[in-house]
């Protein structure tokens, strides 16, 4: 989320005159920091379990909400006409994805492989990263033949790795809610700006996010 937030930050500071600091880390690490009193105003996560966990732990906050949706996409070294055929072929030696136990996009990738009925057949091909950022490094370096990543990652990745991107229709897989947990009124105000300002809506769309409403 750091790339789109950097653009939103510029617009927010220009319109509101309030400086914004963006802190990036894994959702689990940020959750632990908040539990230990880190002075954050707003927590954004692609994994709703963390925002729900904080809210249920009686962390002083507004209720969590979904500010946008993201979806799973496939990168491959060659164009895909039949993903199932390529995944099972001898041309595809390695498949990169995030750890399904740790990352929603990894869990969704396994769900997609299950839908193709190939999961048990490609276990030796799977290469796991702890999170989506590490999976994106697989794509940058082209150390895998195919990888699953987020739609929001494509804009940045495309500048260095042009081929080949395949959208997975949302009719086949659910979209992933992007969760927001305002920790005080300042965070709530920024979230309201994020979800209602026309300029931020355009930024979210540019980065591949789907609107929450």
The strand count comes to 9
Cα Rg: 18 Å
Percent of residues in helices comes to 40-55%
Based on CA inertia axes, which overall geometry fits?
globular
User: What average pLDDT do the residues reach?
Assistant: 93
Helices and strands, in N-to-C order? Answer: HHEHEEHEHEHEHEEHHE
Judged by helices, strands and strand pairing, the structural class is: alpha+beta
Describe the 3D structure.
This protein has 213 residues and is of the alpha+beta class. Helices cover 42% and strands 19% of the residues. It is built from nine helices and nine strands. The protein has a five-stranded mixed beta sheet with strand order 5-4-6-3-7. The chain is globular and about 55 Å long. The model has no long low-confidence stretch (mean pLDDT 93).
What's a quick, concise take on this entry?
By secondary structure, the protein is an alpha+beta fold. It has 9 helices and 9 strands. The strands form 2 sheets. It has a 5-stranded mixed beta sheet.
Helices and strands, with pairings:
Elements: H1 2-16, H2 27-35, E1 42-45, H3 48-56, E2 65-70, E3 72-76, H4 83-88, E4 95-98, H5 104-115, E5 126-129, H6 132-141, E6 146-150, H7 151-158, E7 165-167, E8 176-182, H8 185-196, H9 198-206, E9 210-211
Parallel strand pairs: 4-5, 4-6
Antiparallel strand pairs: 1-8, 2-8, 2-9, 3-6, 3-7
Helix pairs in contact: 1-9
Describe the structure using short key phrases:
213 residues; alpha+beta; four-stranded antiparallel sheet; 9 strands; 42% helix
């Amino acid at each position: 989320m750091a790339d789109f937030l950097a653009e939103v930050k510029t617009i927010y500071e220009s319109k509101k005159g309030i400086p914004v600091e963006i802190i990036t880390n894994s959702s689990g690490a940020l959750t632990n920091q908040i539990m230990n009193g880190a002075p954050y105003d707003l927590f954004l996560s692609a994994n709703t379990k963390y925002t729900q966990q904080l809210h249920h732990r009686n962390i002083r906050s507004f209720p969590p909400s979904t500010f946008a949706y993201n979806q799973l996409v496939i990168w491959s070294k060659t164009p895909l006409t039949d993903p199932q055929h390529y995944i099972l072929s001898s041309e595809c030696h390695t498949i990169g994805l995030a750890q399904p136990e740790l990352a929603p996009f990894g869990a969704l990738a396994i769900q997609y492989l299950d839908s193709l009925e190939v999961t048990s057949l490609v276990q030796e091909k799977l290469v796991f990263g702890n999170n989506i950022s590490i999976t994106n490094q697989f794509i940058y370096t082209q150390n895998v033949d195919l990888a699953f990543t987020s739609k929001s990652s494509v804009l940045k990745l495309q500048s260095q790795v042009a081929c080949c991107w395949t959208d997975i229709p949302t009719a086949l897989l659910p979209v992933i809610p992007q969760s927001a947990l305002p920790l005080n009124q300042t965070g709530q105000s920024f979230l309201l700006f994020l979800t209602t300002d026309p300029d931020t809506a355009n930024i979210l769309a540019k980065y591949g996010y789907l609107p929450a409403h």
